[in-house]
Structure to design on (450 residues):
């Protein structure tokens, strides 16, 4: 009997905790932003930086061919006015100059190329990312030119002190008061959560005398990216008075690159990536063919 | 053959360096001095239509003058703002009312948003950490107070 009472008490306590957590979540104001408004523009910039572009020409490879490598993408430095979204106080968004992302690619039966990436939650520079990307490509070869539709999904979280950061103490009077009063003299734990779904078309054709295989393409990104303002109160809990910003947008991007199959099993790619209204940047990839035996995919 | 590859690698390195040097954001600035509000001076403002939207957009934001945060005991959220300011003593300067109907000059709210440090005794200008209100927005608030700070 006593055991039943204990279980019931535990169940009630659990329910109460769940309901209270849910209620706290509901209390947060959600601000919906368009890509064109100041907050949306800043969120859109960092969202674009995370787009999982192909970083490699679509090639004819054997089934079960396996590649692994590392992508390094440049994250341009933003000026103070570019980081000042609506507020006079800038956001500390220049936390990392590059995005390093491991990639693994596997050729599946039916000439399907799967690409997977996971950025594990390890603190690099001043951010901790935990991002997963998955892409599926099918290379078609009508008349010597490779055309490849590609579908991509990216989701996860990037954490950093963006809203409240210690440099504010040494800023203007307004900024230092902001840090002590609004930030409770603590750095924030902001969460940037991209949720991308993209569709792309890649085109590639080898050109005589060109030492690399060129490719290019365009894509359409449908995103729901959230910036969860994580101002922390003096007891360390998140201040629920701050809103959750949400950017929903559908926008285009393009890329242009070249792939070199260099010594032995190594492979290098350089790519220019452009998302209008957000970013123009460069990415490089260095990888190795881990396994290229097997029957031809086509 | 090896020399050719070295040349290719050097070429690729050079191209990469150039690409990285030209990486940039494709937007100029996200600063919006109007705060997303109309930037016009309203001569006969209505509290509901002209004043409260300024408070809502610029003051009743997270961590500031919301019901939950109520900095300096001031709440400027819709439904609370009027009763929180008109004929109410200023928390930071008790010799003033936040809004004294008919007298914008002694209304503490106006002093806190104006660009005159001495008139607010060097307290940080509001909105804290935000773009200052535009001249037209300040003028609209002044006009509302001078017109009697009506609950209209």
């Amino acid at each position: 009997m006593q055991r039943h009472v204990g279980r019931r008490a535990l169940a009630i306590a659990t329910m109460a905790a769940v309901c209270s957590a849910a209620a706290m979540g509901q209390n947060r104001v959600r601000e919906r932003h368009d890509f064109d408004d100041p907050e949306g523009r800043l969120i859109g910039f960092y969202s674009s930086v995370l787009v999982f572009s192909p970083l490699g020409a679509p090639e004819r490879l054997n089934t079960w061919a396996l590649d692994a490598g590392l992508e390094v993408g440049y994250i341009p430095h933003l000026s103070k006015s570019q980081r000042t979204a609506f507020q006079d106080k800038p956001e500390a968004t220049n936390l990392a100059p590059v995005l390093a992302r491991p990639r693994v690619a596997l050729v599946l039966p039916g000439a399907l190329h799967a690409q997977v990436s996971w950025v594990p939650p390890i603190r690099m520079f001043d951010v901790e990312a935990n991002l997963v990307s998955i892409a599926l490509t099918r290379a078609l070869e009508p008349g010597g030119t490779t055309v490849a539709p590609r579908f991509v999904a990216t989701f996860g979280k990037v954490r950093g002190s963006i809203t409240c950061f210690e440099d504010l103490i040494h800023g203007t009077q307004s900024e230092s008061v902001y840090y002590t009063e609004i930030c409770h003299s603590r750095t924030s734990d902001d969460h940037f959560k991209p949720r991308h779904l993209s569709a792309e078309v890649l085109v590639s054709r080898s050109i005589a005398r060109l030492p690399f295989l060129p490719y290019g393409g365009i894509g359409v990104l449908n995103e729901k990216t959230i910036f969860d303002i994580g101002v922390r109160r003096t007891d360390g809990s998140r201040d629920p008075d701050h809103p959750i910003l949400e950017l929903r947008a559908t926008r285009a991007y393009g890329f242009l690159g070249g792939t070199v199959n260099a010594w032995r099993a190594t492979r290098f790619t350089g790519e220019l990536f452009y998302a209008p209204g957000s970013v123009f940047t460069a990415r490089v990839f260095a990888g190795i063919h881990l396994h290229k035996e097997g029957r031809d995919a086509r | 053959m090896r020399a050719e590859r070295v040349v290719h690698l050097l070429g690729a390195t050079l191209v990469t360096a150039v690409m990285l040097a030209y990486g940039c954001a494709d937007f100029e600035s996200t600063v919006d001095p109007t705060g997303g509000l109309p930037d016009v001076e309203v001569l006969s403002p209505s509290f509901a239509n002209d004043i409260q939207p300024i408070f809502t957009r610029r003051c009743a934001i997270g961590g500031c003058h919301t019901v939950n945060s109520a900095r300096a005991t001031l709440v400027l959220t819709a439904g609370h703002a009027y009763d929180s300011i008109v004929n109410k003593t200023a928390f930071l300067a008790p010799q003033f009312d936040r809004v004294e109907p008919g007298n914008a000059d002694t209304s503490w709210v106006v002093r806190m948003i104006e660009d005159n440090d001495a008139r607010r005794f060097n307290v940080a200008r509001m909105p804290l950490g935000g773009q200052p209100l535009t001249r037209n927005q300040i003028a609209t608030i002044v006009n509302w107070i001078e017109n009697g700070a009506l609950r209209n």
